[in-house]
Amino acid sequence: MLAQNDFLAQAKIGNNQPWRYIVGMILVLLALGIFSIPQVLVTDIKSGRPTVASHWYLLVAIGSFAGGILTLWVWLKNSHHREFQTLITPQSSVNWKRVASSAAVWLVCTAIVELGMYSFFPEMYRFSWNPQQWLPAFIVGFLFLPIQTSCEELIFRGYLFQAIGSRNVVVGLVISSVLFGLMHRFNPETAKVGFALAMSYYIGVGLFFALLTYFDGKLELALGIHASNNIYAFLLVTYPDSALPSPSVITMTELNFPLMIVGWLLAVVLYTVTIKWVFKWI
User: Which of 8, 72, 111, 280 is the most exposed place for a label (fewest CB within 10 A)?
Assistant: First the structure.
């Protein structure tokens, strides 16, 4: 049986009745929906594709996640009477160096795995770099994508995992991971590869982030990985039917989800070995 730790115990600070967490989740999810209306307005209804340049589309889409973070902050402060950083760490402040180090390690691990995949399947990769499109995408993506990834981490591995995990760790791991996966059910790749295969990937990703957060006792490493992963996918290597179309440097010629899952698992192993035994959890 997994024991509770200081990170999960943050849910017991202030007003911690279960109904407050239920209402808080509902309010945050409503905020995500309401603040996503501008994104709907710049999306073609039939194709589901953006009607504006990718960097502008990303900037509009980020508004939804900024609204989610703001709603969570207001509710946490005024209902739970908790400090916002308690969603990230039981310490008095967030160690942003660990967040950045985790992002850097994940980026290197992903690039190593990608190079290995390229050596076996070179026909799956196509050089697609367009400087005029890529440079504004780089600025917007590098600066604002962490808002999207941080919002998801704060909601699922912070707020939700703490709320449930402070009562039962295993149930918290499962529910936070499953709901994280279901949040991606409307992504274009889910319809392309099938619900079951897509959910096995997204739920698995959520479970890895949750386990990493649990064993590290902080959300910092997961924050770094998630930001690095999405920036990599937006700016360096993308694939057809991506939820966020981008003018990346390289585009995969086909969406091979089983192979993508294998690559993800290899990156997870390489990352875990690197941070645990090389950097001693950084």
Answer: 280
Alpha-carbon distance 241 to 79, whole Å?
A: 40
DSSP state of 4: P
Highest mean pLDDT among 126-135, 187-196, 239-248: 126-135
Supply the DSSP symbol for 276: I
For the chain, the first-to-last Cα distance in angstroms comes to 26
The phi and psi torsions of 34 (rounded to 5 degrees) equal -65, -45
Q: Which residue has the higher pLDDT, 25 or 242?
A: 25
Q: Whose structure tokens read 């990608």?
A: 114
Q: Give the separation between CA 245 and CA 100, rounded to whole angstroms.
A: 25
List of residues 6+ apart from 64 with CB closer than 8 A: 32, 33, 35, 36, 39
* Segment 122-146, tens digit of pLDDT: 999 999 999 999 999 999 999 999 9
β-sheet with 237-238: strand ranges across: 125-127, 250-252, 237-238
Using the Cα atoms of residue 148, residue 75, residue 29 and residue 56 in order, give the sign of their dihedral. negative
Bridge partners (DSSP) listed for residue 237:
250
Q: Answer whether residue 220 shows pLDDT above 70.
A: yes
Arithmetic mean of pLDDT, 138-162: 97
Quickly count: other Cβ atoms within 10 Å of residue 210's Cβ.
26
Report yes or no: 228 and 104 within 8 Å, Cβ to Cβ. Answer: yes
